[in-house]
Amino acid sequence: MRKSGKKLAVAGFAALSLIVAACGGSSDGESSACETTTPVKLQLQWVTQAQFAGYFAAQDQGFYAAQCLDVTIVEGGVDIVPQQQLADGAVDFALSWVPKALASREAGANITNIAQIFQRSGTLQVSFKDAGITSSADFAGKKIGNWGFGNEFEIFAALTKAGIDPATGVELVQQQFDMSGLLAGDIDAAEAMTYNEYAQVLEAINPDTGALYTPEDFNVVSYEAEGVGMLQDAIWANADKLASDAAYKDTAIKFVAASIQGWAFCRDNAEACRDIVVAKGSTLGASHQLWQMNEVSKLIWPAPMGAGMIDAAAWDRTVTLAQGTKNLEGSTVLTAAPTDGAYTNDIVTAAYAILDGLGVDYKGEAFAPMTVTLNEGGN
């Protein structure tokens, strides 16, 4: 966690060959002299919001600077494929959901997962209570919203598990990245993330009551609970450079360490991270961002093996689902199991050596979520 007013004693790590280049600094942004500062570009998979609060906090609190990294955070968008940006050399690291990144890897992008930040899936399908949709088996014959762009894989996996043909058993509706279709009655069940779109319906006024909608007005199908949750936000690196460039590998270790430190800071300082994200220019309001910060922390903490560690069982489940789930054309996300090198725990393990020296709790076993009150429009 943050140690205000104290210099980070990285000299003690000199014996660790992977991090001998780490420089000192303080976690409140005051940095000691670095012989060199390494520029780093991180590609987000969406726009500025608390989904990425840990990286913004690491930047704001000086955690990257303390590792002699000058990190530029690049916003994402509908037309940006983070893992392809990484493969093309436009950025140094990228955030992406595992099945999307593995699909790109199968297509030739030589990338590898070096830190699995989100340990659980946050994808939901949300419907009004009177629609009677309480599980994916109830999707049959309904209008099911999805965003596309690879965000629909869990929906198809749930349909497959329920024995429903996605081509004929449901009406799939292209959904905007909001909940307007559900609220207007154009969609029976809308895709949502626990930390974003679900909050949007709870920030909307119920015309029947004149007050905000409540959770009791909706049914929520969690893909994690349905057993088809796939691994989501992970840090991806260039596999070729990781294998051949010692300086890049060293940078990856320091980058992952400082990023996890940022997430630990946000776990323990949710309001501060809400303020950091709002100040960075989020278009969503303060109460929405606090909700998002709280819900994102639930996807990371507690992390019994350590934040960022890739759990082989969760990885295998994601891969199996990606190989066995067919889309509308009958193709699967992956045609074969990923080749060796699709992920490594070596980087995050080395990062823990840095975090241990800083006294950072990267397991968060005592984490308890807070209760967030949403305001109209998320303000």
Lay out the secondary structure:
Blueprint: E1 38-43, H1 53-60, H2 63-66, E2 69-74, H3 82-87, E3 93-96, H4 98-106, E4 111-115, E5 123-128, E6 143-146, H5 153-161, E7 171-174, H6 180-183, E8 189-193, H7 197-202, E9 218-222, E10 234-238, H8 239-244, H9 246-268, H10 270-279, H11 286-300, H12 312-324, H13 346-358
Parallel strand pairs: 1-2, 1-3, 6-7
Antiparallel strand pairs: 3-10, 4-10, 5-8, 5-9
> What characterizes the major β-sheet?
5 strands, mixed
**Corresponding CATH superfamily of the largest domain:** Periplasmic binding protein-like II
Write the H/E string, N to C. EHHEHEHEEEHEHEHEEHHHHHH
What is the general shape? globular
Supply Rg. 21 Å
Oligomer: single chain
Mean pLDDT: 91
Under CATH, the topology of the largest domain can be stated as D-Maltodextrin-Binding Protein, domain 2
Total DSSP E strands = 10
> How many individual domains?
2
Low-confidence stretches: 1-31
Kindly report how far apart the N and C termini lie. 29 Å
* Spatial strand sequence of the major β-sheet: 2-1-3-10-4
Beta-strand content bin: 5-15%
Structural class: alpha/beta
Supply the CATH class of the largest domain.
Answer: Alpha Beta
Name given to the CATH architecture of the largest domain: 3-Layer(aba) Sandwich
Helix content class? 25-40%
Distinct helical segment count:
13
